[in-house]
Design brief:
The protein is built from five helices and eleven strands, in the order H-H-E-E-E-E-H-E-E-E-E-H-E-E-E-H. Helix content is 23%, strand content 34%.
Length: 208
């Protein structure tokens, strides 16, 4: 896996825009409900965007992730990609993802080469997330916001793209079992929407 391979798998951005519409992304029914038939997204969704930062390291590509601090109001302590709400001043989901990445982990946007978007991912908690994929050039510096980010770490891309690591599991929420993907890596438990977006990335990159 190389940067050139990633660019080839994503294809020409102009062709992707022509195929998927003016927003440059395919609207789809991806989300937490994929593994929970009979459930659907919330009636009111909050637009959000995340960056899936693929770090181009000589020893092998990795994906940069964060562990959220334990005191946050939503998804406290969970593993996530840098990202957040799309603000009124953001011109696009890409702008929102880059802004949030700078604010959360201090990763400068001039170190990131955007490749494109994955299908939108809708969460059961009411977010309509646009996952934006980019290659991070080394070297780079990070300066995590201690209010939001407890830890920044990297996971080998090869691990995340191995379907043997895509576990399907369940947990009881609100008296009902909900199914989700999980990808335990070392001491990190990657699950829920983050793992679901990794599966979507796998399907795009490893398609015939």
């Amino acid at each position: 896996m190389t940067r050139e391979w990633l660019i080839e798998r994503f294809g020409d951005p102009r062709q992707r825009r022509a195929a998927t519409g003016s927003r440059g992304m395919a609207r789809s029914d991806r989300g937490d409900h994929d593994l929970n038939p009979g459930t659907g997204p919330a009636s009111r969704l909050t637009p959000a965007a995340v960056l899936i930062p693929i770090v181009d390291r000589a020893e092998g590509m990795t994906v940069l992730m964060t562990r959220r601090t334990d005191h946050l109001a939503s998804h406290a302590g969970q593993i996530s990609f840098p990202g957040g709400h799309v603000e009124p001043g953001d011109g696009s989901p890409e702008e929102a993802a880059l802004r949030e990445t700078e604010e959360e982990v201090g990763l400068a946007r001039d170190r990131i080469h955007l490749l494109g978007r994955l299908d939108a991912y809708v969460t059961g908690t009411g977010f309509d997330i646009t996952p934006v994929v980019g290659v991070v050039e080394t070297p780079f510096e990070i300066d995590p916001d201690p209010h939001e980010v407890a830890e920044v770490f990297e996971v080998p891309l090869g691990f995340l793209l191995d379907p043997a690591n895509h576990q399907r599991t369940s947990r009881r929420f609100g008296g009902e079992h909900h199914f989700f993907y999980a990808m335990p890596y070392d001491d990190y438990y990657i699950w829920g929407a983050t793992a679901g977006m990794v599966v979507n990335l796998y399907e795009l990159l490893m398609r015939p």
